[in-house]
Amino acid sequence: MIEITDKKEFHLSNQHVSYIFRVMEKTHILEHLYFGPRINSYDNYDFLIERDVRTGNNFIMGDHTSSFEHIKQEVPVYGTTDFRYPSIELEYSDGDRISHFEYFDYRLSKGKTREKGQPRSFASEQEAEVLTVILKNRYSDIFLELDYGLYKDLPIITRQQRLINKSRENISIEQFMSLNLDIPNENYEWVHLDGAWARERHVKRQEVQPGVQHISSTRGASSHVYNPFFALVSAQTTENKGNAIGIALIYSGNFLAQIERDNFEVLRLQIGINPYQFKWLLKPNEMFQTPEAVVCYSDSGLNGMSQTFHDFFNFHVINNKWQKDPRPVLINSWEATYFDFNEEKLLEIAQTAKRIGIDLFVLDDGWFGTRDSDEGSLGNWKIDYRKLPNGIKGLSEKIHSMGLKFGLWIEPEMISMDTPLYKKHPEWVIGHPQKNISHGRNQYVLNFAIPEVVENIYHQLESILNESKIDYIKWDMNRYISEAYSVLLPRQQQGELFHRYILGVYQLYEMLIDNFPDIMIESCAGGGGRFDAAMLYYAPQAWTSDNTDAIERLKIQYGTSFVYPLSTIGAHISEVPNHQVGRTTPLTTRSEVAMFGTFGFELDITKLNEDELLLLSNEISKYKLYQSLITQGKFYRLLSPFDSDITAWMVVAKDQSEALVGIYQPLDKPNDHYHRLKLPGLNPKLRYHYMIHGKNVIRFGDDLEKIGLILADNYTDRVGEFWSREKQGDFYSKLIYLKT
Ligand code: DGJ
Q1: What is the CATH number of domain 647-739?
Q2: Given the CA of residue 441, which atom of ligand 1 is nearest to it?
Q3: Residue 110 dihedral angles phi and psi, to the nearest 5°
Q4: Separation between Cα atoms, residue 551 and residue 616, nearest integer Å
Q5: Which of 316, 341, 392, 737 has the largest count of CB atoms under 10 Å?
Q6: Would you say the CATH fold of 322-414+451-481+519-631 matches that of 2-321?
Q7: Is 405 annotated in some ligand binding site?
Q8: What are the residue boundaries of the Glycosyl hydrolase family 36 N-terminal domain, all occurrences included (predicted)?
Q9: Is 82 labelled a binding residue?
Q10: 673 Cβ partners below 8 Å, 6+ apart?
Q11: Pocket of ligand 1 (CB under 6 A)
C-alpha cells in the first residue's frame, strides 16, 4: 500500500514493513522519517520529525532553522549545508558542483517488467507497486527520479534512481548512489562478506565506529574481496533473533557500500556504483539510471534476512524459466583433466557419469585455439581439432546419445596476445597503448564498452552454438581490470569505462539469452569473483569458489547463503587429496557439503573404484530425492564455522512437512561434551520422525526447537568399551532427514 497525505508525506507499507518520508517545508527536499517494522497509518507524520536547531551550523539563505547537516534525507546532494558524504554530486559546465533537488511530482505504477540493458528485479502487477518521486534541480532543468519498489509479501523495498538532463548544457555525474538511508543508530554492528580467491565470502561482523567505514570494489567486477551487500544488526541479533537491515546491490561492477556514523548518532547507509574512478557525461536529453538496490528488514535475525533475500532473488531476479525444472546434476571436466584431454577421455568420463545418474557433462577450459595451458588462445573461439577431431558438434552428439546434456566453458571477455583477433584489433584491449598494460593469468581484458567488440565475440560464439547442441554454458572471467583506459573514449568520458564495460557484459548475456533461450548459463569468475545479484539475473547459478575442499566450503557456502539462495550456489564433489588445500576428506562428507547447493562433480570419476561409484550413485539418488526441499525450502544456518567447532545448517520445507539437517565436525574430539542442536522453523504442533544412531525417533517440532536434537549416542545398552568402538574420525558429516 502506498499512501500519500495532503502534506506530501509518503508511507509505503505492507504487512511487514513501513517506509516513510516527506517533502520538507521551505527547502522542498525529501526528508526521511522511518524505515522498519510496519506502523499504522496516520493523517500526519510530523511526530516522526527528529531534528534540533544547533549552533555552529550553516543555514540556507533566509532561514535559521534548516541545516541539511541534521536532516535525515532520501537523496543528499553535494552543494548544501550537509557535510556528510552525498549520494549525488554533479558538475556543471562552469565547474560548479552545487545542486538542490526539490520535490516536483510523483507517479504510481503497478508491477515491474524484466528490463533490458540493466538487471533489476521484476514482479507482476499483483506482486509489487512502484512509487516514482520526481525532483527538479532548483538551478536548471535536471530531473531526478526516485523509484521505490514495494513488494506485497516481502519485507523488501527496492531503490533505483535516474537523472534526466533536460537542460541545454552537458553535465558531469561525479557520484550517483543507488540508495541513501539515514537512520538513527541503535548500537548497530555491521556484517559483510569478505575474502580472496579460494576463500570467498567469509563472514565479518564489526561494531559501527564513528566516522566512515566502507567496503568496495575498484577491480571492474564485484570481486572475490567484498560482496555488494552489507547488513546492519543490533548487538543482540543472532541467526534467529533480533533485527537486521540487509542491503544488496544488483550490480556486477565497481561498487561502494558505505556507513557514515555522524556525531549525532545518525547512520548514513549508502550503496551504489563506486564513485572512485567514475564520471559520466550526461548530454542534453540523455538519461542515466543507477543499478537497483534492495533493502530488506528482518525481525527474525540474520536467517530471516537471508530467507527474504533467497525468496526475492529466486522469484524476482532469477528468470522464472529456471525455477520450473530441477537443476541438472553436473560433472565438470576442469579438475578431472585441466587442459590435458581428448575426445576419448571425455567420453569415458561421460559414460561413467551416466552410469551413476549424472545429468549434464560440462567441458571446461582448453577446447579452442591451441590452448594447452593458460598461456594463450582466448578470443580465438575456434575448435581445437587436435583434441576434438569431431569438433564440439561431434562430441556433443555423442554425449547426447548417452542420454546426458552437454555444457561448454567460455571466457568471452578476455583476449590472449597470440590470437588473430588481438593482432587485428590491439586497440580493443583495455589499457593505454604507450604505457604498461598488465596481464593477469597471461590474458588481457577486451573492451566490452565498445559495441563492435561485444558483437565480434557474440558472432564467434554464435557459430559454435548454432552448429552444436549445447544445453549449458559456463561463463568464466579470470582477471580484474587494471590500468583502465579506453583508446576509443574522449578524455572527459574515461570515467565511464568501468560502467560501460559491465553494461557490455550484460549486453552479451542478453544477446546469448535472446537467441538461445534454452541454454542455461552458469556464471563464474575465477571461482566466486563475480557472485552477485546482477549475474543471477542472467545466470541462475554461479560457481561459488575454485576451492572445492569440503571443509573450506563450509565457510564459503555459509557466508554465501547470507544473501544468495542455495539454488545458485554451485557446489561440487572433487578428488582427494584436494587440489587447493591437499586435504583428504571422506567421500560422504564431500557429498553432504555439496548437496546444500547446485550439486555436481569435479573429478575424474573413471579413477574411482566400484564401491565409490556405488556410493556416489546413492548420493545422487538421495540428492534428487531432497532436491526440491533443498532448493525451495527455507534455509537456516544453525552453527557457524566461523565461531564453532561444529557447523550445522538445515532446510525446512515451506509447508513444514519435512526438513534436512546437515552437521559437520572438521576435527574429532575425544570424550567430547554433549551437543544439542536446536532446530528452528519446524511446526511446533507436528510430530517429526527421524533416524539417529540407527534408531527411529519421533518428536514434536516445538521440543526440537526448545530442547534440540540430542547428538550424543543415546547410549542405553552396553555396546563395547570406548577403545573398541568405531570412531567417527575427522571431517565427519551427518545428514538427518525429518518428516512429519
Ligand atoms: C577458473 C574457474 O573458476 C575454474 O572452474 C575453471 O573453469 C578455470 N577457470 C578454467 O580456466
Answers
A1: 2.60.40.1180
A2: 11
A3: -115, 145
A4: 19
A5: 316
A6: no
A7: no
A8: 30-283
A9: no
A10: none
A11: 334, 364-365, 409, 476, 478, 524, 526-527, 543, 546
Q: How confident is the model at residue 242 (pLDDT cuts 50, 70, 90)?
A: very high
Q: Shortest CA distance to 21 belongs to which of 180, 244, 230?
A: 180
Alpha-carbon distance of 361 to 341, in angstroms, equals 14
Q: Is residue 418 marked as binding?
A: no
> How do the domains of the chain map onto residue ranges?
2-321, 322-414+451-481+519-631, 647-739
Q: Which residue has the CA at smallest separation from atom 11 of ligand 1?
A: 365
Residue 617 sits at the vertex; the CA angle it makes with 613 and 623, to the nearest 5 degrees, is 140
Distance CA 28, CA 36 (A): 24
Question: Domain spanning 2-321 has what CATH number?
Answer: 2.70.98.60
Which CA distances in Å does 205 have to 231, 270, 642, 648, 649?
9, 18, 11, 19, 19
Q: Which of 58, 69, 85, 83 is nearest to 29 (CA)?
A: 69
Task: Decide if pLDDT at 687 tops 70.
Answer: yes
Instruction: Please give the class, per CATH, of domain 322-414+451-481+519-631.
Output: alpha beta
Mutate to test the pocket of ligand 1, among 441, 546, 602 (most ligand atoms within 8 A of CB): 546
Q: Which of 372, 478, 547 has most ligand 1 atoms within 8 Å of its beta carbon, as the pocket-test mutant?
A: 478
For ligand 1, the distance from its centroid to the CA atom of residue 520, given in whole angstroms, is 18
State the angle between helix axes of 451-467 and 497-515 in degrees (0 to 180), rounded to the nearest 10: 30
Q: Which of 311, 471, 546, 549 is catalytic?
A: 546
Cα–chain-centroid distance for residue 596?
Answer: 17
- Rounded to whole angstroms, the Cα distance separating 262 from 668 reads 47
Choose among 638, 608, 636: nearest CA to 711.
638
pLDDT digits (tens, 9 = 90+) for 635-648: 999 999 999 999 99
| Residue in the block written with cell 533467497 | 310
Cis peptide before 577 (omega within 30 of 0): yes
Kindly report the pTM of this predicted structure.
0.97
476 is catalytic: yes
Cell of 513: 539469452
> pLDDT tier at 254 (50, 70, 90 boundaries)?
very high
Q: How far is the CA of 543 from the centre of ligand 1 (A)?
A: 9
Residue 569 CA to ligand 1 centre (angstroms): 16
**Using only C-alpha atoms, what is the Rg of the chain?**
27
Residue 621 phi/psi, 5° resolution?
-60, -40
